[in-house]
Amino acid sequence: MTKAGGGFARLMNVERLGREPMSFDIRATEEECVALAAALDILGVSDVKASGSLMREGANGLVAVSGRISAMAVQACVVTLDPVEQAIDEEFTVFYTFDPRDITVEETEKVVGLDEPDPPTLITGGRIDLAEVIQEQIALALDPYPRRDDLPEAPVEAELDLEQAKKEQGVHQPFANLRDLMSKK
Fold first, then answer.
1. CB neighbours of 92 closer than 8 A, spacing ≥ 6?
2. C-alpha angle 155/160/164, rounded to 5°?
3. Which residues are 13's β-sheet partners?
4. 3-state SS string over 16-40?
5. What is the predicted pLDDT for the residue at 165?
6. Among 34, 56, 96, 126, which residue's CB has the most CB atoms within a 10 Å radius?
7. HEC profile of the chain
8. In sequence order, what are the residues at sequence separation of 6 or more whose Cβ sits closer than 8 angstroms to the Cβ of residue 124?
9. For 40-68, what is each residue's pLDDT tens digit?
10. Residues 6 or more apart from 109 whose CB is under 8 A from it?
């Protein structure tokens, strides 16, 4: 993920984060929405709101950032390139760590399930940029193939069974009657 740029940053100092959660409530300005749309390479984004909390996770030292994000994104239709709006309203939880050993990838192959959390991100300078979290969550929620609702559906060819397809194509089957001949003996 690229850094959220163009003047959109919300740094939270988490060095002294204790047992009590620290809450946040972010509303992006118009200029920040323009910078966010440029960073996401989409036509536009507006009404970006995020709220939630940062909290230490037990003895492991992880910092959990949990919350809800809402926004209105505008992308180009994959067929006509017309603007297509998408309302985004997602809950999220991401993890951060102070310990670089927590983010090392093991050399062994590991299957990661969809329900498992992503590995934590390293906290640098004692701060977490919530603008990066917002940008990442919007990017994950975007429709990868935005399409206008009023476009006709692409025709789907009906599936034919193999025998029916062979008959329609007139495929010659030289041994088709062999079973019948063998059973008459």
1. 52, 65, 66, 67, 68, 69, 133, 137
2. 140
3. 127
4. CCCCCCEEEEEECCHHHHHHHHHHH
5. 66
6. 96
7. CCCCCCCCCCEEECCCCCCCCEEEEEECCHHHHHHHHHHHCCCEEEEEEEEEEEEEEHHHCEEEEEEEEEEEEEEECCCCCCEEEEEEEEEEEEEEECCHHHHCCCCCCCCCCCCCCCCCEECECCEEEHHHHHHHHHHHHCCCCCCCCCCCCCCCCCCCCHHHHHHHHCCCCCCCCHHHHHHHC
8. none
9. 999 999 999 999 999 988 767 788 999 99
10. none
Per-residue pLDDT tens for 154-163? 655 555 566 6
Convert 92-109 to b/e letters by CB count within 10 Å (16 or more is b): bebbbbeeeebeeeeeee
pTM of the model: 0.72
Tell me which amino acid residue 100 is.
P
Residue length of the chain: 185
104 pLDDT more than 70: no
d(CA 138, CA 70): 8
